[in-house]
Amino acid sequence: MAQRTIVFFPEGAFGPTNNCVGIGEVLRERGHRVVFVVEESFAGTLSERGFEERLMRLAPAPEVPEEPGQFWKDFIRETAPVFRESTFEQLADFMAPTWQVLVDGARYVDERLAEIFAELEPDAIVEDNVVSFPAILASGRPWVRIVSCNPLEAKDPTLPPPYSGLPADDDSEWASFRAEYERVTADMHVSFGEFCQERGAPALPPGEFIHESQWLNLTIFPRELDYSRSATLGPTWQKLESSVRGSDAEWSPPAGFAGGEGALIYLSLGSLGSGDVPLMERLVEALAATPHRYIVSMGPQHAEYSLAENMWGEEFLPQVSVLPHVDLVITHAGNNTTTESIHFGKPMIALPLFWDQHDNAQRLDETGFGVRLGTYEFTDEEMAGAINRLLGDEAPRARRAEASARLQANPGNVRAADLIERVAAGEKAPS
After folding, report:
1. Residue 220: C-alpha distances to residues 80, 169, 263, 355, 399 (Å)
2. Does position 119 have pLDDT exceeding 90, yes or no?
3. What is the pLDDT of residues 353-368, one digit of tens each?
4. Among 67, 148, 218, 323, which residue is least crowded by beta carbons within 10 Å?
5. Region of 117 on the Ramachandran plot (φ > 0 left; ψ -120 to 50 alpha; else beta)
6. What is the side-by-side strand order in the sheet with 293-297?
7. Whole-structure pTM over 0.85, yes or no?
8. Is the Cβ–Cβ distance between 340 and 363 less than 8 Å?
């Protein structure tokens, strides 16, 4: 294929950015020009990986320099007390304010995005966000939507509402959750929909803050965890199942943690969840009493707490390189960590905090690929029991190994690159 210019526009967080990096690496290796549109706080992080960057802002610049993704780190830290609430309560106290921040960002950046697309004249734009950016649709360029959250984001009346963490086999609370979600977002949806049309994009679909691409829509969720829908998604919807980058630095367990007693367990609540220092301290306390060894991704607040003797950690770890070495993962159930852990055949203990993490945690629990615990309510006995159960069950281990072998034999980032190349060549509906 002739060289194409492909622009990636991920949300300003490490999960979506890393996902796009894995796909972008494949496209770059095939000779395409790959450009990342990133927030100014991420400046240099993509060029270090060999990609071009175009910088933008989603809000006015602060008075002090920012770290990558600092806006969302600050936002999550300020709203962390809300994570102790039920998902129903979070709708008004967390989801609605977050949607407002997101749509305000889309308004703020739209002119800058239009400038970038006019300069680059891309053959395809790849968006990994949860809100629409009208400049993408108004550009007239082929574009791709990546759903790197739980696939409930693509709604179905016979499935639980997204962000609820409600079970798939009990619909008793679905209607009330949907009604509350509509109540807290309705006015915002109308206002943002008007803005999208003013800026040259189509009207928003009812109840949605993002458009479906007429070219290509990608979900990232293994079939073993996926849902049975009442209506099949259209031909522009394709399932990657997992998408694992190959550029993380090599990693091996440090001295004293390789070949020791007990299991080797990875603890990561993501760059945002690990900022909840009291929660991290609670986990250190509970896990210190177990006979296992722990590798801890300590996060941006790493200097604010200490690890126990059976633990080793750093601020950031190359997760894709860590996962093959461990026996189990304790996670916030972000979509990247969930799919990457399945990709490597690892069971999970899920401690969800916000957004689709509740849905991922629930799905892990009800499919047998993990255990969902109360993030702030778990007891030491519950944590130790979940660890022992997941390490000891043979049947789930065989299922995980089978899923891992299949996913690794068909890399999702390669599949995504194949599909994006077709869109860049002008094809709308991959088979």
Report:
1. 27, 22, 29, 16, 19
2. yes
3. 999 999 999 999 999 9
4. 67
5. alpha
6. 311-314, 293-297, 264-268, 328-331, 348-350, 370-372
7. yes
8. no
